[in-house]
Amino acid sequence: MSATLAPRVVLVSRRSELDELLAHHGTRGAAGYYLRQRGRDLAEVVARHDALQAALTIVGAAIPADWRRGQADREDLARFPFAPEDIVVAVGQDGLVANAAKYLDGQPVIGIDPEPDRNAGVLVPFAPLEIARLLPEVVAGRAPIRERTMVRARLDDGQELLGLNEIYAGHPGHQSARYVLSTVDGRRERQSSSGLVVGTGTGATGWCASIARERSGAPPLPAPGERALCWFVREAWPSPSTGASLTAGRLGTDETLEIVAERERLVVFADGLEADHLAMAWGQRLTIGPATRRLRLVEPAGAD
């Protein structure tokens, strides 16, 4: 931390489902009617909103009065001016940490789970009341911080995208994508598929795990801190002009996959956020591999 500046805590959250319903329907009565038509109860949505607000209140109150503070909504992360000395506190589901990770560069992240009975809590392992203990430990360098590997996609025009869980490249309408795939061992194949998924050890418990379970001979999935990635081609279609022999593998520290777009425009996005994507024109080249940047996540003592 800087010797001249007090620590700054940046609180990251996203709007609750109730907030989104009120923004769309205007009143709780209208939101309740909308939910009842779909077999849901407004009370459950309100309870989840209240749990999030209570967690945010606890975290805000625990920040020392002489520390600086900032706040960023998930929708504003791409524009938020994070500073090197920031401590980032993400209050919400695991996906919120993944959303924030791509905009950070070495800042420690504390994940707070406002609904431990509902969320997996892999990236948000702490209860709100623990923040008062964690903040001083992070500043003093006593908190256990573990680095998690991220995945990077880079276009030949210099545009880049980072992901904590996985990166997907495919057709923008989720139809068949046409491209040429080149692997690290020099093999090359023209393919028509539902897209390419390249995942990290953090993402290996999600989308990549679902794909691997359906593949005989799937490569071993990496651990969260391992400098390795796994990759899968979804529903490759063999035809007279396309193949289906290169459909899965692993990438090491300095290894990359490469695809060259053919015919249709392709899109590349990370961690399920299709709105934040790269667009590949015909003939453009994309390389995907482990990122040099890593997420520094505060984890419970003794965590694997």
Automatic annotation (TrEMBL):
GO terms for biological process: NAD+ metabolic process. GO terms for molecular function: NAD+ kinase activity. InterPro entries: ATP-NAD_kinase_N, ATP-NAD_kinase_PpnK-typ_C, NAD/diacylglycerol_kinase_sf. Coiled coil: none annotated. It comes from the Bacteria. Gene3D superfamilies: Probable inorganic polyphosphate/atp-NAD kinase, domain 1, Probable inorganic polyphosphate/atp-NAD kinase, domain 2. Signal peptide: none annotated. This is NAD kinase.
